[in-house]
Amino acid sequence: xxxxxxxxxxxxxxxxxxxxxxxxxxxxxxxxxxxxxxxxxxxxxxxxxxxxxxxxxxxxxxxxxxxxxxxxxxxxxxxxxxxxxxxxxxxxxxxxxxxxxxxxxxxxxxxxxxxxxxxxxxxxxxxxxxxxxxxxxxxxxxxxxxxxxxxxxxxxxxxxxxxxxxxxxxxxxxxxxxxxxxxxxxxxxxxxxxxxxxxxxxxxxxxxxxxxxxxxxxxxxxxxxxxxxxxxxxxxxxxxxxxxxxxxxxxxxxxxxxxxxxxxxxxxxxxxxxxxxxxxxxxxxxxxxxxxxxxxxxxxxxxxxxxxxxxxxxxxxxxxxxxxxxxxxxxxxxxxxxxxxxxx
Length: 344
Ligand code: NAI
Ligand code: MG
Description:
Bound molecules: 1,4-dihydronicotinamide adenine dinucleotide, magnesium ion
Strand order of the largest sheet: 2-1-3-12-11-4-5-10-8-9
Pathway: Amino-acid biosynthesis; L-leucine biosynthesis; L-leucine from 3-methyl-2-oxobutanoate: step 3/4
EC number: 1.1.1.85
Radius of gyration: 20 Å
Number of strands: 12
Number of helices: 12
CATH superfamily of the largest domain: Isopropylmalate Dehydrogenase
Mean pLDDT: 95
Protein name: 3-isopropylmalate dehydrogenase
Structural class: alpha/beta
Order of helices and strands: EHEHHEHEHEEEHEHEHEHEEHHH
Strand content: 15-25%
GO molecular function: 3-isopropylmalate dehydrogenase activity; magnesium ion binding; NAD binding
Shape: globular
Keywords: Amino-acid biosynthesis, Branched-chain amino acid biosynthesis, Cytoplasm, Leucine biosynthesis, Magnesium, Manganese, Metal-binding, NAD, Oxidoreductase
């Protein structure tokens, strides 16, 4: 039987995770949900933002659903030694799970085009997925150094590292509209040439997917001028970090954005936003990003695509009927959640 480790965390984390749990219990009542502490809450309870009890619970779990971690700017947590701060708990969690593929769907939902900062005709119908390599490249390559007047980092990738994240992107494209855009800078970078060769060879195994290669600088422009041209985008860690934050402006509210991080066995699912200390405890946070993350969990880790589709459709219906405060409406967390459950 499927087992999901639930990590509510800090700030609005417990509020938005509470909402997602109601939805999961409704559509997948047989799944075991097991709560454990992480972040500042775990530091308070166990003196460690990623305590051994939480780590042990993840062994053999099918997925983890995370809220958010971190305190307000004036929180005492910010003065702790770095390894004890809430944010290190999250980084250790991602590393522990070996989640090398970060998936960020970016959707402008029908009826919510007006929230996008882009003109409605550009924003309408945007539905793309960014697949970002998460554990390699410049952020992790040990070949780095800093002298007084010079410094360097290295973007190193092996064929195997490219293939394993590429596989996630091809599979996703196959299940979506069948168009994969691999993003690189192959006109300048050696590593991008290997990236391009590897992905091109891999495409043979996915005859239903059309593979395009585009340069990262050009993609940056097109993402905010013609976003409708994209289905799945595949890219390395640094490019993906920048492009996924850029793409996050398209829907118009951080509260709507889900993410999935996949790797060895246990997938990690979390909203893109932080702990929102300014509204924590008021019951007004938008739980959509977390509920949509739970939908990704159903689809990618539990193989329940039709339940995931149902949840996504219910969230769209609920948001259109009773928008939350970040969307210019008045619905509370509980009211939006109730609307999602009704729509299910
Ligand atoms: P934030 O995402 O928490 O908040 C930015 C703004 O968006 C705030 O005005 C907040 O009220 C609003 N907001 C965010 N999520 C919302 C939601 N679901 N519904 C309605 N409004 C929402 O980013 P900020 O303020 O920079 O960081 C606050 C704390 O969160 C910090 O301690 C930071 O380290 C942590 N953080 C944690 C992340 C994680 O757990 N993955 C990611 C980003 C930040
Ligand atoms: Mg970023």
